[in-house]
Structures are given as structure tokens and as C-alpha cells.
Amino acid sequence: MNVMITGASGGLGRALAAECAGRGYNLFLTDINEQGLRCLQSGLERQYGVCVTARKCDLTDDESVDEMLSVIDRNGIEFDMLLNIAGMDFEGGFLDRERESVVKIVSLNVEATLRITHAILKRRRAGREFSLVFVSSLASLYPMPLKATYAASKRFLSDFALAIGQELKSQNVKVLTLCPGGLPTTQEAISGIAAQGFWGEMTTNKLETVASRTIERALKGKRMYIPGTVNRTLSLCGKLLPRSFIAAIIYKRWIGAQSKWLSLESKT
Fold it and tell me: For the purposes of burial, counting CB atoms within 10 Å of the CB of 268, is it exposed (0-12), middle (13-18) or buried (19 or more)?
């Protein structure tokens, strides 16, 4: 099994890389953080004895992606699975962020994901099942004031995954959308979860558990995975209540949590 993981040096990417390595899969890891990639590569090779290739790449840049693809083609690598983990968000309201920051969210979460997905689907192993995973978010299920660009970008991925899953079903491609709540991926993320108090704790899941169950569900051909009972319950509320009402409730809850989080960040 040959697996590509984007955003591999981040928390969820590392957890999924470890999960796949533990299953004996060969890995092609990419991230813009070269040092993090190299550390991850050496650790996985040492612990699991699997073949791990690591390549720094800026997925938002066509030239950088083409250079990575040329390495893949020269070595004749074909894939059985793609885990689209790379993504980003910036805290703060829409007008509180610089224009470049807002656009960068869409550039990585949407454009870069489409760029690499198209390329790797063209390089999947012939005659074999192919598993494709998109990391969306619980935020994609609602209109999210103060996280509007991020939530909308993740909603795009969720809708795209469902559509392409149907489109490629006859070609033996299985598509899973992962919609997690909070994940303790970085110190910044942990601070954001803490700022949300009770609800932050209740909607957060362990990285290792999410990674293991994501791979299990991807291999079984499941279409969506929302980790955690509380998160699945909240997703049902999103389907039953008017979206304008949900937006108002989320704004009232999020503005306090975000203000607290940004205040904490400014002091560190």
C-alpha cells in the first residue's frame, strides 16, 4: 500500500503517518516544513521499518507541486491512498484579518487540495481500489461567524468529496470526508480549545483515535466520519434548525471564546 499524506508534519498528519506506518504501508510525506518532515521520516523508519519518502512542497505553488510530481514520476510511484491533511485557519473576524491572510485560507484549503488531488488520482495504481480522504471540519456543517472563510472552505471540501465520490465510484475510488471538532494539533490549537471552556473540551478528540478510525472507515468505503458522540449530535442540530438561527447562536458563543483566546495569545 502506497500512501501520500499532505501536511504530514502537523499534528493530525503525524498521527495518520504513524497509523499508516504501523499498518506496514509505504509513505510519501509532504509538507512545507522540511525539518519537521525529516524528523518524522527518520522516526517512522526507525520505529516501523517501512519505506518513507519525504519531500518539501508548497502546495499553493504550481511550480513546487510540479517539481514534486516529477520526482514521483521518475521513480514510477503509484498510489493507493491520498490523505489530504494540509490546511489552515487564522483566528479573528473577517475584517480583522489582512486580505492576504483571508485569501491564503482558500488558497491552501481549497485550491491546493484540488491541485494535489487531481494529480494523485492520475497517478493511482491501476486495477486497485483507491482511498481518498479529505479533512473538512465540524465547522463546515454550519455558517460560522468569525470563522466564515475557514468554515466555507471546509464546506467546499465536504460537498466536493461527496460529489466526486459518486463520480468516481465506478472507477473503484472510495472517498471519505473527515469532519472533526477540536484537535490538539498545536499549542495554538490547544489554547483555542481551552478558551472555549466546557464546549471546547466536549468537542475535542484524541489524535490517535481519530487517525485510527479514519483509516478504518476509509478502507471500508465510508463517506463521512464525525468523531465523537457530542459532535455527531451537534451535526444533527445543524440539519434541523434554521441556518440563520444557528449563525446567531454560534456568534454569541464564539465571540467570547475568540476574544479570550486572542487576549491570551497577545500575552504570550
Answer: exposed
**pTM score of the predicted model:** 0.88
Its domain, for residue 214, covers: 2-186+202-236
> DSSP labels for 131-195?
EEEEE--GGGGS--TTSHHHHHHHHHHHHHHHHHHHHTGGGTEEEEEE--SB---SHHHHHHHHH
Helix axes of 207-220 and 11-22: crossing angle, nearest 10 degrees = 60
Q: What is the pLDDT of residues 11-35, one digit of tens each?
A: 999 999 999 999 999 999 999 999 9
Grid coordinates representing 15 are: 498521527
Contacts of 69 (CB under 8 A, 6+ apart): 119, 123
Total count of domains within the chain? 1
Sequence-distant (6+) residues with CB within 8 A of 149 are: 94, 102, 105, 106
Instruction: Let me know the angle formed at the C-alpha of 217 by 214 and 218, rounded to the nearest 5 degrees.
Output: 80
Residue 252 lies in a domain: no
What are 104-125's pLDDT values in tens digits?
999 999 999 999 999 999 999 9
pLDDT at 266: 53
Phi, psi of 197 (to 5 degrees): 65, -135
- C-beta separation of 69 from 119 below 8 A: yes
What's 72's domain CATH number? 3.40.50.720
Residue 18 lies in a domain: yes
Domain contains 32: yes
Within-domain flag for 178: yes
Residue-wise pLDDT tens digits, 27-85: 999 999 999 999 999 999 999 999 999 999 999 999 999 999 999 999 999 999 999 99
